[in-house]
Design brief:
Oligomer: heterodimer
Largest sheet of chain B: none
Low-confidence stretches of chain B: 1-27
Strand content of chain B: under 5%
Largest interface: A-B, 53 and 45 residues
Low-confidence stretches of chain A: none
Distance between the termini of chain B: 37 Å
CATH superfamily of chain A: P-loop containing nucleotide triphosphate hydrolases
Shape of chain A: globular
Structural class of chain B: mainly alpha
Radius of gyration of chain B: 22 Å
Largest sheet of chain A: 6 strands, mixed
Number of strands of chain A: 10
CATH topology of chain A: Rossmann fold
Number of helices of chain A: 9
Number of domains of chain B: 1
Number of domains of chain A: 1
Strand order of the largest sheet of chain A: 6-7-8-4-9-10
Helix content of chain B: over 70%
Shape of chain B: globular
Distance between the termini of chain A: 31 Å
Number of helices of chain B: 15
Strand content of chain A: 25-35%
Structural class of chain A: alpha/beta
CATH architecture of chain A: 3-Layer(aba) Sandwich
Number of strands of chain B: 1
Chain lengths: 262, 307
Amino acid sequence: MAQLLVENVSVSFPLYHGESRSLKKTVFAAASGRMGQDSRKRLTVEALRDVSFSLHTGDRLGFIGSNGAGKTTLLRAMAGIYEPVGGRIVIEGLVTALLDPGQGMNMELTGYENIRLRALFNGYSEQQTRVLQEDVAQFAELGNFLSLPVRTYSSGMIVRLGFALATAIHPQILLMDEWILAGDAAFLGKARQRLETMVGSAEILVLSSHNAAILMQWCNRIIWMEGGRVHADGPPEEILSAYLPPEQFEQAKTAASALTAV
Amino acid sequence: MGYRQAMNMLMPGPEKAGAGLFRPDTPLPQIVVISSARGWRTRLAAAAQDFHETLRLWPLIWALSLFDIRLRYRGSLLGPFWLTLSTGVMIGAIGFVYARLFHQDVGAYLPFLAVSLVLWNFLNTVTGEGATCFTQSEGMVRAMRMPHALHAARVVVRNFLVLAHNILPILIVFAVFPPHWSWPVLSLPAALLLWMADCFAVALLLGVIGARFRDVPPIVGSIMQIAFYLTPIMWSPEMLTHRGLGLSLILIEMNPFYGMLEILRAPLLGQALNSLAWINALAYSALLMGLAFLAFARTRQRIPYWI
Protein backbone atom coordinates (compact mmCIF):
# COMPACT_ATOMS: atom_id res chain seq x y z
CA MET A 1 0.00 0.00 0.00
CA ALA A 2 1.79 3.08 -1.21
CA GLN A 3 0.76 6.66 -0.83
CA LEU A 4 2.23 10.09 -1.27
CA LEU A 5 0.77 13.19 0.32
CA VAL A 6 1.79 16.69 -0.67
CA GLU A 7 0.40 19.20 1.81
CA ASN A 8 0.66 22.96 1.18
CA VAL A 9 4.19 22.57 -0.10
CA SER A 10 6.19 25.66 -0.95
CA VAL A 11 9.72 25.63 -2.29
CA SER A 12 11.85 28.68 -2.94
CA PHE A 13 15.38 28.91 -4.20
CA PRO A 14 17.75 31.43 -2.72
CA LEU A 15 19.79 33.31 -5.30
CA TYR A 16 23.26 33.56 -3.84
CA HIS A 17 25.54 33.26 -6.79
CA GLY A 18 25.85 35.59 -9.70
CA GLU A 19 24.61 39.16 -9.63
CA SER A 20 21.33 38.34 -7.98
CA ARG A 21 20.79 41.90 -6.89
CA SER A 22 21.40 43.62 -10.19
CA LEU A 23 18.91 46.25 -11.17
CA LYS A 24 17.89 44.44 -14.34
CA LYS A 25 17.00 41.32 -12.43
CA THR A 26 15.13 43.17 -9.74
CA VAL A 27 13.00 44.91 -12.36
CA PHE A 28 12.45 41.63 -14.18
CA ALA A 29 11.50 40.01 -10.89
CA ALA A 30 8.94 42.66 -10.07
CA ALA A 31 7.45 42.25 -13.54
CA SER A 32 7.16 38.45 -13.47
CA GLY A 33 5.95 38.25 -9.89
CA ARG A 34 7.80 34.99 -9.31
CA MET A 35 10.61 36.49 -7.35
CA GLY A 36 10.24 37.35 -3.75
CA GLN A 37 12.36 38.26 -0.79
CA ASP A 38 12.65 36.11 2.26
CA SER A 39 12.69 37.35 5.85
CA ARG A 40 16.33 38.34 5.58
CA LYS A 41 15.86 40.30 2.35
CA ARG A 42 17.57 37.72 0.18
CA LEU A 43 16.27 37.29 -3.33
CA THR A 44 14.47 34.04 -3.85
CA VAL A 45 12.69 32.30 -6.71
CA GLU A 46 9.42 30.82 -5.59
CA ALA A 47 9.43 27.58 -7.51
CA LEU A 48 6.39 26.04 -5.79
CA ARG A 49 3.65 27.86 -3.96
CA ASP A 50 1.18 26.10 -1.70
CA VAL A 51 0.88 22.89 -3.70
CA SER A 52 -1.42 20.19 -2.30
CA PHE A 53 -2.62 16.84 -3.61
CA SER A 54 -2.55 13.23 -2.54
CA LEU A 55 -1.72 10.07 -4.46
CA HIS A 56 -2.78 6.55 -3.59
CA THR A 57 -2.17 3.06 -4.88
CA GLY A 58 -2.95 2.75 -8.60
CA ASP A 59 -2.66 6.44 -9.39
CA ARG A 60 -0.84 7.33 -12.59
CA LEU A 61 -0.32 11.05 -12.45
CA GLY A 62 0.96 13.26 -15.25
CA PHE A 63 2.27 16.82 -14.92
CA ILE A 64 1.89 19.32 -17.71
CA GLY A 65 2.76 22.97 -17.86
CA SER A 66 5.11 25.35 -19.62
CA ASN A 67 8.86 25.34 -19.01
CA GLY A 68 9.64 26.61 -15.56
CA ALA A 69 6.17 25.88 -14.20
CA GLY A 70 7.72 23.91 -11.34
CA LYS A 71 7.22 20.34 -12.61
CA THR A 72 10.75 19.13 -12.07
CA THR A 73 11.09 20.93 -8.77
CA LEU A 74 7.88 19.30 -7.61
CA LEU A 75 9.18 15.88 -8.64
CA ARG A 76 12.39 16.55 -6.73
CA ALA A 77 10.44 17.63 -3.66
CA MET A 78 8.28 14.50 -3.92
CA ALA A 79 11.43 12.39 -4.10
CA GLY A 80 12.59 14.00 -0.85
CA ILE A 81 15.57 15.75 -2.44
CA TYR A 82 14.40 19.33 -1.97
CA GLU A 83 12.99 19.65 1.51
CA PRO A 84 10.17 22.22 1.33
CA VAL A 85 10.30 25.60 3.09
CA GLY A 86 6.57 25.38 3.81
CA GLY A 87 4.13 22.50 4.25
CA ARG A 88 5.07 18.85 4.36
CA ILE A 89 5.40 15.72 2.27
CA VAL A 90 4.51 12.26 3.52
CA ILE A 91 5.97 9.34 1.58
CA GLU A 92 4.72 5.86 2.31
CA GLY A 93 6.54 3.30 0.21
CA LEU A 94 9.85 2.96 -1.60
CA VAL A 95 10.45 5.85 -4.01
CA THR A 96 12.61 5.79 -7.10
CA ALA A 97 13.09 8.97 -9.06
CA LEU A 98 14.28 9.12 -12.66
CA LEU A 99 14.90 12.83 -12.71
CA ASP A 100 17.87 13.07 -14.99
CA PRO A 101 19.33 10.37 -17.23
CA GLY A 102 22.61 10.30 -15.34
CA GLN A 103 20.77 9.53 -12.09
CA GLY A 104 23.77 10.04 -9.93
CA MET A 105 25.59 7.42 -11.94
CA ASN A 106 29.33 7.90 -12.07
CA MET A 107 30.11 8.41 -15.75
CA GLU A 108 33.65 7.14 -15.34
CA LEU A 109 32.56 3.81 -13.87
CA THR A 110 31.29 0.95 -15.99
CA GLY A 111 27.63 -0.01 -16.25
CA TYR A 112 28.18 -3.02 -14.02
CA GLU A 113 29.97 -0.95 -11.39
CA ASN A 114 27.11 1.53 -11.35
CA ILE A 115 24.61 -1.28 -10.95
CA ARG A 116 26.68 -2.56 -8.07
CA LEU A 117 26.65 0.85 -6.38
CA ARG A 118 22.89 1.04 -6.74
CA ALA A 119 22.54 -2.42 -5.22
CA LEU A 120 24.67 -1.35 -2.26
CA PHE A 121 22.51 1.74 -1.84
CA ASN A 122 19.51 -0.56 -1.59
CA GLY A 123 21.32 -2.85 0.82
CA TYR A 124 21.25 -5.92 -1.44
CA SER A 125 23.16 -9.10 -0.77
CA GLU A 126 25.76 -10.41 -3.23
CA GLN A 127 23.21 -12.82 -4.68
CA GLN A 128 20.57 -10.12 -5.12
CA THR A 129 23.17 -7.89 -6.77
CA ARG A 130 23.88 -10.59 -9.36
CA VAL A 131 20.18 -11.02 -10.09
CA LEU A 132 19.87 -7.25 -10.43
CA GLN A 133 22.81 -7.14 -12.86
CA GLU A 134 21.26 -9.88 -14.99
CA ASP A 135 17.87 -8.22 -14.95
CA VAL A 136 19.25 -4.82 -15.96
CA ALA A 137 21.50 -6.34 -18.62
CA GLN A 138 18.60 -8.24 -20.13
CA PHE A 139 16.22 -5.30 -20.18
CA ALA A 140 18.64 -2.59 -21.28
CA GLU A 141 20.09 -4.82 -24.05
CA LEU A 142 23.44 -3.13 -23.71
CA GLY A 143 25.43 -6.35 -24.00
CA ASN A 144 29.16 -5.86 -23.62
CA PHE A 145 28.74 -2.10 -23.20
CA LEU A 146 27.97 -2.77 -19.54
CA SER A 147 31.68 -3.49 -19.04
CA LEU A 148 32.63 -0.09 -20.47
CA PRO A 149 32.57 3.27 -18.69
CA VAL A 150 29.15 4.92 -18.88
CA ARG A 151 30.68 8.04 -20.50
CA THR A 152 31.19 5.99 -23.69
CA TYR A 153 27.42 5.39 -24.00
CA SER A 154 25.11 7.31 -26.28
CA SER A 155 22.42 9.35 -24.53
CA GLY A 156 19.82 6.77 -25.56
CA MET A 157 21.90 4.02 -23.98
CA ILE A 158 22.24 5.99 -20.76
CA VAL A 159 18.46 6.37 -20.70
CA ARG A 160 18.02 2.62 -21.14
CA LEU A 161 20.45 1.84 -18.35
CA GLY A 162 18.91 4.42 -16.02
CA PHE A 163 15.40 3.23 -16.71
CA ALA A 164 16.28 -0.46 -16.38
CA LEU A 165 18.09 0.22 -13.12
CA ALA A 166 15.31 2.31 -11.64
CA THR A 167 12.56 -0.15 -12.49
CA ALA A 168 14.51 -3.35 -11.76
CA ILE A 169 14.50 -2.29 -8.15
CA HIS A 170 10.67 -2.45 -8.15
CA PRO A 171 9.85 0.83 -6.49
CA GLN A 172 6.40 1.32 -5.08
CA ILE A 173 6.41 4.94 -6.20
CA LEU A 174 8.13 5.88 -9.45
CA LEU A 175 8.76 9.52 -10.33
CA MET A 176 9.85 10.24 -13.91
CA ASP A 177 10.83 13.38 -15.76
CA GLU A 178 10.31 13.82 -19.50
CA TRP A 179 13.78 12.75 -20.66
CA ILE A 180 12.50 9.18 -20.84
CA LEU A 181 11.28 10.13 -24.31
CA ALA A 182 14.88 10.13 -25.49
CA GLY A 183 14.60 6.36 -26.02
CA ASP A 184 13.80 4.96 -29.46
CA ALA A 185 10.33 3.65 -30.36
CA ALA A 186 11.14 0.01 -29.64
CA PHE A 187 12.50 0.98 -26.25
CA LEU A 188 9.45 3.09 -25.45
CA GLY A 189 7.20 0.08 -26.14
CA LYS A 190 9.31 -2.07 -23.82
CA ALA A 191 9.41 0.64 -21.18
CA ARG A 192 5.64 0.94 -21.26
CA GLN A 193 5.23 -2.82 -20.83
CA ARG A 194 7.58 -2.82 -17.89
CA LEU A 195 5.81 0.13 -16.28
CA GLU A 196 2.43 -1.45 -16.84
CA THR A 197 3.37 -4.61 -14.98
CA MET A 198 4.65 -2.37 -12.24
CA VAL A 199 1.60 -0.13 -12.07
CA GLY A 200 -0.57 -3.21 -12.50
CA SER A 201 0.75 -4.49 -9.20
CA ALA A 202 -0.80 -1.45 -7.55
CA GLU A 203 1.92 1.16 -7.32
CA ILE A 204 2.12 4.88 -8.02
CA LEU A 205 3.53 6.46 -11.15
CA VAL A 206 4.21 10.17 -11.57
CA LEU A 207 5.31 11.41 -14.98
CA SER A 208 6.15 14.87 -16.18
CA SER A 209 6.01 15.37 -19.94
CA HIS A 210 5.23 17.73 -22.78
CA ASN A 211 4.10 14.83 -24.93
CA ALA A 212 0.31 14.78 -24.68
CA ALA A 213 -0.01 11.42 -26.47
CA ILE A 214 2.21 9.71 -23.92
CA LEU A 215 0.40 11.34 -21.02
CA MET A 216 -2.98 10.26 -22.41
CA GLN A 217 -1.75 6.76 -22.86
CA TRP A 218 0.03 6.30 -19.52
CA CYS A 219 -1.85 8.44 -17.04
CA ASN A 220 -5.26 8.40 -15.42
CA ARG A 221 -4.89 11.80 -13.81
CA ILE A 222 -3.27 15.04 -14.90
CA ILE A 223 -2.14 18.05 -12.90
CA TRP A 224 -1.59 21.26 -14.83
CA MET A 225 1.12 23.36 -13.20
CA GLU A 226 1.45 27.04 -13.79
CA GLY A 227 3.64 29.57 -12.02
CA GLY A 228 4.50 27.09 -9.28
CA ARG A 229 0.85 26.41 -8.46
CA VAL A 230 -1.64 23.69 -9.30
CA HIS A 231 -3.73 25.26 -12.07
CA ALA A 232 -6.03 22.30 -12.70
CA ASP A 233 -6.30 18.70 -11.55
CA GLY A 234 -8.45 16.01 -13.18
CA PRO A 235 -8.78 13.19 -15.74
CA PRO A 236 -6.40 13.37 -18.76
CA GLU A 237 -9.01 14.10 -21.46
CA GLU A 238 -10.53 16.97 -19.54
CA ILE A 239 -7.29 18.71 -18.54
CA LEU A 240 -5.52 18.15 -21.85
CA SER A 241 -8.46 19.49 -23.88
CA ALA A 242 -8.28 22.66 -21.83
CA TYR A 243 -4.47 22.86 -21.98
CA LEU A 244 -3.92 22.15 -25.67
CA PRO A 245 -5.30 23.99 -28.69
CA PRO A 246 -8.18 21.86 -30.15
CA GLU A 247 -6.33 20.59 -33.25
CA GLN A 248 -3.27 19.54 -31.20
CA PHE A 249 -5.55 17.76 -28.77
CA GLU A 250 -7.13 15.78 -31.61
CA GLN A 251 -3.67 14.94 -32.96
CA ALA A 252 -2.52 13.73 -29.55
CA LYS A 253 -5.65 11.64 -29.19
CA THR A 254 -5.10 9.83 -32.49
CA ALA A 255 -1.40 9.43 -31.68
CA ALA A 256 -2.26 7.94 -28.30
CA SER A 257 -4.69 5.41 -29.78
CA ALA A 258 -2.09 4.55 -32.44
CA LEU A 259 0.51 3.92 -29.74
CA THR A 260 -1.88 1.71 -27.82
CA ALA A 261 -2.63 -0.25 -31.00
CA VAL A 262 1.11 -1.02 -31.39
CA MET B 1 46.50 -6.66 -11.32
CA GLY B 2 47.82 -7.62 -7.92
CA TYR B 3 46.69 -4.30 -6.61
CA ARG B 4 43.16 -4.78 -7.91
CA GLN B 5 42.94 -8.16 -6.24
CA ALA B 6 44.18 -6.74 -2.99
CA MET B 7 41.48 -4.09 -3.17
CA ASN B 8 38.87 -6.73 -3.86
CA MET B 9 39.99 -8.58 -0.80
CA LEU B 10 39.42 -5.44 1.20
CA MET B 11 35.81 -5.28 0.01
CA PRO B 12 33.25 -6.47 2.52
CA GLY B 13 32.48 -10.10 1.80
CA PRO B 14 29.17 -11.25 0.39
CA GLU B 15 26.49 -11.23 3.01
CA LYS B 16 24.45 -14.33 3.23
CA ALA B 17 21.18 -12.50 3.68
CA GLY B 18 18.05 -13.09 1.68
CA ALA B 19 18.65 -16.82 1.07
CA GLY B 20 19.74 -16.02 -2.49
CA LEU B 21 16.31 -15.05 -3.77
CA PHE B 22 15.74 -11.68 -5.35
CA ARG B 23 12.49 -10.48 -3.91
CA PRO B 24 10.72 -7.86 -5.99
CA ASP B 25 9.14 -6.35 -2.93
CA THR B 26 12.14 -6.23 -0.62
CA PRO B 27 11.48 -2.82 0.94
CA LEU B 28 9.97 -2.82 4.33
CA PRO B 29 7.00 -0.47 4.56
CA GLN B 30 8.50 2.82 5.60
CA ILE B 31 6.95 6.20 6.12
CA VAL B 32 9.04 9.27 5.50
CA VAL B 33 7.66 12.60 6.63
CA ILE B 34 9.48 15.61 5.25
CA SER B 35 8.23 18.61 7.08
CA SER B 36 9.19 22.24 6.82
CA ALA B 37 9.21 22.53 10.62
CA ARG B 38 12.45 24.29 11.49
CA GLY B 39 12.78 24.09 15.26
CA TRP B 40 16.16 23.06 16.66
CA ARG B 41 14.62 19.86 17.98
CA THR B 42 13.55 18.68 14.52
CA ARG B 43 16.81 19.85 13.00
CA LEU B 44 18.93 17.91 15.49
CA ALA B 45 16.74 14.84 15.15
CA ALA B 46 17.00 15.00 11.35
CA ALA B 47 20.78 15.32 11.54
CA ALA B 48 20.99 12.34 13.91
CA GLN B 49 18.77 10.36 11.53
CA ASP B 50 21.10 11.36 8.67
CA PHE B 51 24.08 9.94 10.59
CA HIS B 52 22.17 6.77 11.33
CA GLU B 53 21.36 6.21 7.65
CA THR B 54 24.95 7.00 6.71
CA LEU B 55 26.14 4.29 9.05
CA ARG B 56 23.68 1.84 7.52
CA LEU B 57 25.08 2.62 4.05
CA TRP B 58 28.62 1.81 5.16
CA PRO B 59 29.16 -0.80 2.38
CA LEU B 60 28.22 1.83 -0.22
CA ILE B 61 30.66 4.36 1.26
CA TRP B 62 33.38 1.73 1.19
CA ALA B 63 32.69 0.82 -2.44
CA LEU B 64 32.52 4.50 -3.51
CA SER B 65 35.86 5.19 -1.86
CA LEU B 66 37.50 2.19 -3.52
CA PHE B 67 36.11 3.21 -6.92
CA ASP B 68 37.37 6.77 -6.35
CA ILE B 69 40.90 5.51 -5.86
CA ARG B 70 40.67 3.05 -8.73
CA LEU B 71 39.38 5.75 -11.07
CA ARG B 72 42.04 8.22 -10.07
CA TYR B 73 44.74 5.80 -11.14
CA ARG B 74 42.98 3.85 -13.89
CA GLY B 75 45.52 3.07 -16.59
CA SER B 76 48.50 4.09 -14.50
CA LEU B 77 51.31 1.64 -13.88
CA LEU B 78 51.96 2.16 -10.18
CA GLY B 79 48.45 3.31 -9.26
CA PRO B 80 48.17 4.84 -5.80
CA PHE B 81 51.77 3.86 -5.17
CA TRP B 82 52.81 6.88 -7.23
CA LEU B 83 51.80 8.87 -4.19
CA THR B 84 53.80 6.56 -1.97
CA LEU B 85 56.82 6.97 -4.22
CA SER B 86 56.59 10.76 -4.32
CA THR B 87 56.17 10.92 -0.55
CA GLY B 88 59.19 8.67 -0.15
CA VAL B 89 61.37 10.76 -2.47
CA MET B 90 60.27 13.95 -0.74
CA ILE B 91 61.08 12.59 2.72
CA GLY B 92 64.47 11.39 1.57
CA ALA B 93 65.40 14.64 -0.19
CA ILE B 94 64.12 17.06 2.44
CA GLY B 95 65.29 14.88 5.31
CA PHE B 96 69.01 15.08 4.57
CA VAL B 97 69.00 18.78 3.68
CA TYR B 98 66.98 19.91 6.68
CA ALA B 99 68.86 17.67 9.11
CA ARG B 100 71.97 19.69 8.19
CA LEU B 101 70.07 22.96 8.26
CA PHE B 102 68.62 22.37 11.72
CA HIS B 103 71.83 20.72 13.00
CA GLN B 104 69.95 17.52 13.69
CA ASP B 105 71.06 13.92 13.70
CA VAL B 106 69.66 12.27 10.55
CA GLY B 107 68.76 9.12 12.48
CA ALA B 108 66.48 11.16 14.76
CA TYR B 109 65.23 13.67 12.21
CA LEU B 110 64.27 11.35 9.35
CA PRO B 111 61.68 9.26 11.29
CA PHE B 112 60.24 12.50 12.72
CA LEU B 113 59.97 14.06 9.27
CA ALA B 114 58.51 10.92 7.66
CA VAL B 115 55.69 10.61 10.19
CA SER B 116 55.01 14.36 10.20
CA LEU B 117 54.88 14.80 6.44
CA VAL B 118 52.67 11.77 5.80
CA LEU B 119 50.21 12.85 8.49
CA TRP B 120 50.19 16.45 7.31
CA ASN B 121 49.61 15.46 3.68
CA PHE B 122 46.65 13.46 4.88
CA LEU B 123 45.23 16.37 6.90
CA ASN B 124 45.78 18.74 4.00
CA THR B 125 43.86 16.53 1.56
CA VAL B 126 41.01 15.88 3.98
CA THR B 127 40.44 19.60 4.55
CA GLY B 128 40.76 20.39 0.84
CA GLU B 129 38.46 17.62 -0.35
CA GLY B 130 36.17 18.09 2.65
CA ALA B 131 35.44 21.67 1.63
CA THR B 132 34.16 20.43 -1.73
CA CYS B 133 32.56 17.18 -0.54
CA PHE B 134 29.00 18.31 -1.32
CA THR B 135 29.68 20.36 -4.44
CA GLN B 136 31.61 17.42 -5.90
CA SER B 137 28.70 15.04 -5.29
CA GLU B 138 26.13 17.29 -6.91
CA GLY B 139 24.95 14.57 -9.30
CA MET B 140 24.21 12.12 -6.51
CA VAL B 141 22.63 14.68 -4.21
CA ARG B 142 20.21 15.81 -6.91
CA ALA B 143 19.38 12.34 -8.22
CA MET B 144 17.98 10.68 -5.13
CA ARG B 145 17.32 11.12 -1.47
CA MET B 146 20.28 9.89 0.49
CA PRO B 147 21.90 10.91 3.75
CA HIS B 148 24.13 13.93 3.20
CA ALA B 149 26.73 12.88 5.78
CA LEU B 150 27.59 10.04 3.41
CA HIS B 151 29.56 12.43 1.19
CA ALA B 152 31.70 13.59 4.10
CA ALA B 153 32.27 10.00 5.21
CA ARG B 154 33.35 9.12 1.67
CA VAL B 155 36.11 11.76 1.76
CA VAL B 156 37.36 10.40 5.09
CA VAL B 157 37.35 6.72 4.06
CA ARG B 158 38.97 7.48 0.70
CA ASN B 159 41.78 9.40 2.34
CA PHE B 160 42.38 6.79 5.01
CA LEU B 161 42.88 4.31 2.16
CA VAL B 162 45.41 6.69 0.61
CA LEU B 163 47.06 7.07 4.03
CA ALA B 164 47.35 3.28 4.21
CA HIS B 165 49.43 3.38 1.01
CA ASN B 166 51.65 6.08 2.46
CA ILE B 167 52.61 4.08 5.51
CA LEU B 168 55.20 2.31 3.38
CA PRO B 169 57.81 5.15 3.39
CA ILE B 170 57.43 5.40 7.16
CA LEU B 171 58.03 1.67 7.50
CA ILE B 172 61.17 1.91 5.35
CA VAL B 173 62.54 4.78 7.45
CA PHE B 174 61.72 2.85 10.62
CA ALA B 175 63.52 -0.20 9.25
CA VAL B 176 66.70 1.87 8.80
CA PHE B 177 66.35 3.88 12.01
CA PRO B 178 64.24 1.70 14.31
CA PRO B 179 62.35 3.66 16.98
CA HIS B 180 62.42 2.43 20.56
CA TRP B 181 58.78 1.73 21.13
CA SER B 182 57.47 1.34 24.62
CA TRP B 183 54.02 1.20 26.22
CA PRO B 184 52.78 4.60 24.86
CA VAL B 185 52.35 2.78 21.54
CA LEU B 186 49.21 1.32 23.08
CA SER B 187 47.59 4.76 22.82
CA LEU B 188 47.79 4.65 19.01
CA PRO B 189 44.36 3.06 18.38
CA ALA B 190 42.70 5.71 20.54
CA ALA B 191 44.56 8.47 18.71
CA LEU B 192 43.62 7.00 15.34
CA LEU B 193 39.98 6.78 16.35
CA LEU B 194 40.03 10.44 17.38
CA TRP B 195 41.58 11.30 14.02
CA MET B 196 38.81 9.52 12.16
CA ALA B 197 36.08 11.28 14.12
CA ASP B 198 37.78 14.64 13.71
CA CYS B 199 38.29 14.18 9.98
CA PHE B 200 34.61 13.35 9.56
CA ALA B 201 33.68 16.47 11.55
CA VAL B 202 36.07 18.64 9.53
CA ALA B 203 34.75 17.34 6.21
CA LEU B 204 31.16 17.90 7.34
CA LEU B 205 31.80 21.41 8.67
CA LEU B 206 33.93 22.62 5.77
CA GLY B 207 31.61 20.82 3.36
CA VAL B 208 28.46 22.72 4.36
CA ILE B 209 30.31 26.05 4.52
CA GLY B 210 31.96 25.32 1.17
CA ALA B 211 28.61 24.46 -0.40
CA ARG B 212 27.18 27.80 0.66
CA PHE B 213 30.20 30.05 0.12
CA ARG B 214 32.24 29.13 -2.92
CA ASP B 215 35.25 31.09 -1.73
CA VAL B 216 35.83 28.69 1.13
CA PRO B 217 37.81 25.92 -0.63
CA PRO B 218 40.63 28.25 -1.77
CA ILE B 219 40.63 29.98 1.63
CA VAL B 220 41.01 26.60 3.33
CA GLY B 221 43.96 25.88 1.04
CA SER B 222 45.69 29.12 2.01
CA ILE B 223 45.10 28.60 5.72
CA MET B 224 46.51 25.09 5.55
CA GLN B 225 49.60 26.39 3.79
CA ILE B 226 50.23 28.96 6.51
CA ALA B 227 49.52 26.34 9.17
CA PHE B 228 52.11 24.08 7.57
CA TYR B 229 54.86 26.56 8.39
CA LEU B 230 53.57 27.51 11.85
CA THR B 231 53.03 23.93 13.01
CA PRO B 232 55.90 21.70 14.13
CA ILE B 233 56.05 19.50 11.04
CA MET B 234 59.45 20.17 9.51
CA TRP B 235 60.81 21.30 12.87
CA SER B 236 60.11 20.15 16.40
CA PRO B 237 59.37 22.41 19.40
CA GLU B 238 62.51 21.08 21.10
CA MET B 239 64.60 22.80 18.44
CA LEU B 240 63.27 26.11 19.73
CA THR B 241 63.63 25.59 23.47
CA HIS B 242 67.33 26.43 23.68
CA ARG B 243 66.64 29.73 21.92
CA GLY B 244 64.49 30.90 24.81
CA LEU B 245 61.37 31.55 22.80
CA GLY B 246 58.88 31.13 25.62
CA LEU B 247 56.02 32.95 23.97
CA SER B 248 56.16 31.08 20.70
CA LEU B 249 56.21 27.81 22.67
CA ILE B 250 52.86 28.74 24.16
CA LEU B 251 51.59 29.54 20.67
CA ILE B 252 52.77 26.15 19.49
CA GLU B 253 51.03 24.36 22.30
CA MET B 254 47.81 26.24 21.59
CA ASN B 255 47.99 25.27 17.92
CA PRO B 256 45.13 22.86 17.21
CA PHE B 257 47.17 20.98 14.60
CA TYR B 258 50.02 20.43 17.05
CA GLY B 259 47.96 18.40 19.52
CA MET B 260 46.47 16.25 16.79
CA LEU B 261 49.85 15.54 15.20
CA GLU B 262 51.58 14.91 18.49
CA ILE B 263 49.17 12.27 19.81
CA LEU B 264 49.97 10.08 16.81
CA ARG B 265 53.57 11.13 16.24
CA ALA B 266 54.99 10.89 19.77
CA PRO B 267 54.13 7.23 20.39
CA LEU B 268 55.19 6.26 16.86
CA LEU B 269 58.64 7.80 17.47
CA GLY B 270 58.93 6.02 20.80
CA GLN B 271 58.47 9.16 22.88
CA ALA B 272 56.58 9.40 26.13
CA LEU B 273 52.86 10.08 26.23
CA ASN B 274 52.37 13.82 25.83
CA SER B 275 49.53 14.68 28.18
CA LEU B 276 49.51 18.35 27.16
CA ALA B 277 49.05 17.36 23.51
CA TRP B 278 46.22 15.02 24.46
CA ILE B 279 44.44 17.76 26.41
CA ASN B 280 44.88 20.11 23.46
CA ALA B 281 43.65 17.48 20.98
CA LEU B 282 40.63 16.46 23.07
CA ALA B 283 39.58 20.04 23.76
CA TYR B 284 39.79 21.10 20.14
CA SER B 285 38.10 17.89 19.00
CA ALA B 286 35.15 18.45 21.32
CA LEU B 287 34.83 21.99 20.01
CA LEU B 288 35.14 20.89 16.39
CA MET B 289 32.65 18.04 16.69
CA GLY B 290 30.10 20.19 18.48
CA LEU B 291 30.46 22.93 15.91
CA ALA B 292 30.26 20.49 12.99
CA PHE B 293 27.14 18.82 14.33
CA LEU B 294 25.36 22.11 14.93
CA ALA B 295 26.36 23.50 11.54
CA PHE B 296 25.24 20.32 9.81
CA ALA B 297 21.93 20.22 11.68
CA ARG B 298 21.31 23.87 10.85
CA THR B 299 22.09 23.62 7.13
CA ARG B 300 21.36 19.98 6.24
CA GLN B 301 18.07 20.53 4.43
CA ARG B 302 19.48 23.47 2.43
CA ILE B 303 22.41 21.58 0.91
CA PRO B 304 20.53 20.45 -2.27
CA TYR B 305 19.48 24.06 -2.90
CA TRP B 306 23.01 25.40 -2.58
CA ILE B 307 24.99 23.10 -4.79
